[in-house]
């Protein structure tokens, strides 16, 4: 049997657990809980679910992750982008507010969990590598923008159709400018101000006043809670919900979620599969990225396979709690870390506090205006909209920058799911395109040395009767015709050519298509009176070739050990080597 | 204006056209026409169309190709695999025998033509490179097998449902063994015998008897025509169509197709797009492959872009003639070439003869049994079933062989369209997988030279404090995390490590994801007290890096011109170099 610490990283941390570590964890746990309660409710709205479902997703999943996760300070729970994806996915099958809608969310959690565990079982976690930095960056910015725009509804009190594309949302807004509820807008803007003030001015102020950290830190991170308090008090005090129609959260059922109420719906799984895969991959990618950054600050590393398991089980926990998928969030994890979380005990404390608030605090949220939750969402996603990343990309690599831009635009137009799929498609198409055009260099001898270098970059000597070509890539179906055409074109450009030497020191394998092309090439060159030779063939490739009749097929062509050897033998009757630069 | 010969290769050939060339062309034209008439009718049945549609597809498209094609001896017209694909595509939308069915076939021709011309316009002909040799080979064998199996119907006289998967076809056959029409079976087997006899025995016999080539050659290639004659005579003589229910071709309308009767149906185009793309690509690939083989026998080359235009226009010609898509076929092209075709005038002659037979010979086909056409099809596709290719592939490269086998099985199970798409998907997934695991070598100094080689293959000297790694691939999103993990793992395996040198002589570009990973790697290594250096960075990559802050970001890390320089500087305080083999 494997030792406990192998399965449960927390067992390892608890071996040296001390009072001081617990106090750090307690502090971080409290601070995260203060953020988590309002954010959880807000993100549940974003996913189209009643607010308590965000809190349900913040108890059992956190505890399960705390047991299994390899990151000490990753804060798992409802996150903005996954909430948007859940909302836009389920809106296609079910009406918001119905049992079918909630059931779809639960099935989605189950599917996300199962997919993550399958990826672990098949050792396929590296599949996320195919989502390039540019695609993720364009996707995140666009999703954050979509989330921010979706909150126009909560700020204006207008009934903007949920699934409308952004231009229709704006169209609706401009058509109904006079119908905007000014009280709602005022509450929303006030909440934004409270959030901004707490995050910037208040923090600096407390620091300047040298307030002790254990007081200053919770106060700084309590912006969402302050906004909730201020918003609720304004509505309650001014009876705005009655006199001015400001929409509030209203009655939240007190108590814990019922466990194990899942209705499996395998037909639904077919429709949910692709969204679930994307939610799983993006959630996993975000969690691992954040986890890696935080771990490296402690000079530790996280284990991606353990993360697959931990996030998979956490999502099964979501399904068990009857709520929607979770992931490791960027914002709260940063707060958790900087608040001093030493182990995942901090997350357990957060989960426990959310549980307490579900048991005792829900009546307090009756007057909480939705506009305030909208403000919490907008302030949380604005940092995700990142234009500087495009600027940097553009300077470095235009193709990446254009992929980023295309993904950004496609997500805005077609929505998160189709948008990111198109983005991934574009980046893979670019990769295939690049792989179909390998770098090939005509090389010549450097001085009288044994070195051969690209004639375009170095002052080298070439020969009239022998052409040496270095192929800087493995040979396979996607590039083999390009290589063939390149060689035939070179032949057309050189009269008196008798030999071509292919330098294969960068060829790590040759596939069947390439072998066939090479065999045909030998024949075509022979028709023109040119012999094909190979040089510097790597061991494994040579073994491969010896399994076939290729070497016989070369006829007079040889396989040379070094390019130097090849050139000395083939051009020995060549009395006047041609100096490339002077030719 | 571009000269005529640039647009019409035939104009070039006609400049030196002589009587002797014409006689060769005439001979080849006649021989191909003798094959083409029965094959055309048979393939039309395969596509689910009345037999005359195969002849319609053998007139205008051939003439158009003859004007525009760059291959002297490619024989364009109805081909087996495209016919199968047309049949299985349209069966999904329309009932055989209806106007809707024929209209779908015509729209498919139009779409194939348009797609080929668009590929030319966008210079995207190289897209066929993504269909690897293994995929095409597996696909062709499976399609040929499917075609052969589909003829059980014509041989047995049983009414096997057309779109049934193969196991159901066999099931139907075994359930109805007693219902097999013995007369039909007999006619079919007789036809097979005639075809086999003509192709093998008769040919050798004539050769042995020293019959002049101009007689022997047409006779040898007239197998299908002989089979048609024998089959028709048996049915007519024995009145088998009446007494034994042998199905015959029956009445074929005499006369030419009506031109320009296309009913555009853009809604249908959405459904037809993917099949049309596949038919276009496979047709183009087969035509170019055959054309290249034939051209190289004359030491000529064909021009793939001209072929895209010529095949595109030929398919528009099919659409204009109200019939289904055409391509350059393997079998008839070989016959055309070996019969001595010198220019595409041969194809014009074939087309003219098909035209004549449509005008005058159709009544003769009244008694032609479908079983004979089935025999013509089966004998034409059997050579396409190629198991030796799998054996060769298996010896050379297991992954290719498995791709071939998977494509073969998937085509048999899911049909041609989905099967080949899965095959292409598999080969691209393998390519992506390989590209995500680049070859990285730890290198050491060879003797006291300036050369550094893989420590696993050569006897080299390494240093305790400096690790030199050569990355044999460009760095991009799909492989960047693998490279990072490889390096971090190497660090864990070496204590006392102070420097890592990345040798980038095979790195042709770095994308934004890789740059970000490298920047993170610098920080992670710095945390462990290790400095990252680069060596042998190529010019274009260095230019790219200088556009960013990466070089500053390296801190104490340097970019060395050569590995030798790097190792001399970094390991200078290292008094005892470690010899790898003795370590």
UniProtKB/TrEMBL annotation, chains A, B:
It is found in: Membrane. One of its GO terms (cellular component) is membrane. InterPro entries: SLC26A/SulP_dom (IPR011547), SLC26A/SulP_fam (IPR001902), STAS_dom (IPR002645), STAS_dom_sf (IPR036513). The keyword Translocase does not apply. The chain crosses the membrane at residues 21-46, 52-68, 75-94, 100-122, 134-152, 179-198, 219-238, 272-296, 308-327, 339-360, 367-385, 405-433. Residues 456-570 form the STAS domain. Its main location: membrane. It holds the Pfam family STAS. This is Sulfate permease. It comes from Pontibacterium sinense.
């Amino acid at each position: 049997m494997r030792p406990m610490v192998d399965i449960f990283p927390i067992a390892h941390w608890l071996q040296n657990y001390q009072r001081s570590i617990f106090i750090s964890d307690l502090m971080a746990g409290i601070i995260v809980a203060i953020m988590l309660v309002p954010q959880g409710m807000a993100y549940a709205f974003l996913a189209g679910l009643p607010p308590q479902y965000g809190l349900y997703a913040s108890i059992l999943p956190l505890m399960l992750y705390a047991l299994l996760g390899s990151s000490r300070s990753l804060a798992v729970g409802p996150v903005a982008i996954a909430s948007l994806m859940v909302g836009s996915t389920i809106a296609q099958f079910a009406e918001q507010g119905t049992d079918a809608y909630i059931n779809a969310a639960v099935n989605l959690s189950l599917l996300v969990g199962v997919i993550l565990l399958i990826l672990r079982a098949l050792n396929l976690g590296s599949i996320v590598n195919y989502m390039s930095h540019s695609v993720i960056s364009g996707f995140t910015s666009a999703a954050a923008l979509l989330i921010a725009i979706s909150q126009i509804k909560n700020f204006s009190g207008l009934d903007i159709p949920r699934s409308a594309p952004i231009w229709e949302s704006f169209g609706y807004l401009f058509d109904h400018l006079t119908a905007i509820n000014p009280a709602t807008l005022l509450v929303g803007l006030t909440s934004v101000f409270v959030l901004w003030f707490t995050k910037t001015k208040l923090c600096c102020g407390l620091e300047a006043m040298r307030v002790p950290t254990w007081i200053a830190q919770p106060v700084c991170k309590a912006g969402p809670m302050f906004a909730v308090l201020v918003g609720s008090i304004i509505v309650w005090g001014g009876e705005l919900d009655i006199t001015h129609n400001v929409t509030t959260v209203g009655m939240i059922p007190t108590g814990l979620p019922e466990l194990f109420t899942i209705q499996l719906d395998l037909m639904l799984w077919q429709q949910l599969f692709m969204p679930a895969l994307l939610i799983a991959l993006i959630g996993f990618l975000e969690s691992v990225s954040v986890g890696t950054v935080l771990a490296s600050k402690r000079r530790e590393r996280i284990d991606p396979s353990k993360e697959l398991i931990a996030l998979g089980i956490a999502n099964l926990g979501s399904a068990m709690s009857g709520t929607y998928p979770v992931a490791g969030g960027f914002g709260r994890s940063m707060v958790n870390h900087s608040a001093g979380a030493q182990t995942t005990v901090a997350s357990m404390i957060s989960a426990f506090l959310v549980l307490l608030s579900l048991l005792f605090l829900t009546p307090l949220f009756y007057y909480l205006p939705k506009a305030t939750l909208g403000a919490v969402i907008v302030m949380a996603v604005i940092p995700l909209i990142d234009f500087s990343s495009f600027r940097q990309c553009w300077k470095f690599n235009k193709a990446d920058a254009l992929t980023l831009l295309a993904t950004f635009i496609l997500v805005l137009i077609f929505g998160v799911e189709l948008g990111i799929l198109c983005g991934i498609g574009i980046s893979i198409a670019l990769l295939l395109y690049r792989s179909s055009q390998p770098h090939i260099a005509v090389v010549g001898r450097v001085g009288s040395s044994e070195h051969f270098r690209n004639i375009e970059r170095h002052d080298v000597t070439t020969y009239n009767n022998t052409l040496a070509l270095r192929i800087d890539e493995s040979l396979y179906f996607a590039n083999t015709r390009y290589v063939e055409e390149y060689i035939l074109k070179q032949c057309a450009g050189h009269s008196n050519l008798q030999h071509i030497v292919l330098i294969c020191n960068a060829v790590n394998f040759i596939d069947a298509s390439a072998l066939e092309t090479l065999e045909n090439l030998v024949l075509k060159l022979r028709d023109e009176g040119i012999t094909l030779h190979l040089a510097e063939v790597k061991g494994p490739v040579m073994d491969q070739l010896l399994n076939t009749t290729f070497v016989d097929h070369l006829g007079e062509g040889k396989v040379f050990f070094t390019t130097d050897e090849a050139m000395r033998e083939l051009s020995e009757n060549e009395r006047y080597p041609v100096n490339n630069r002077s030719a």
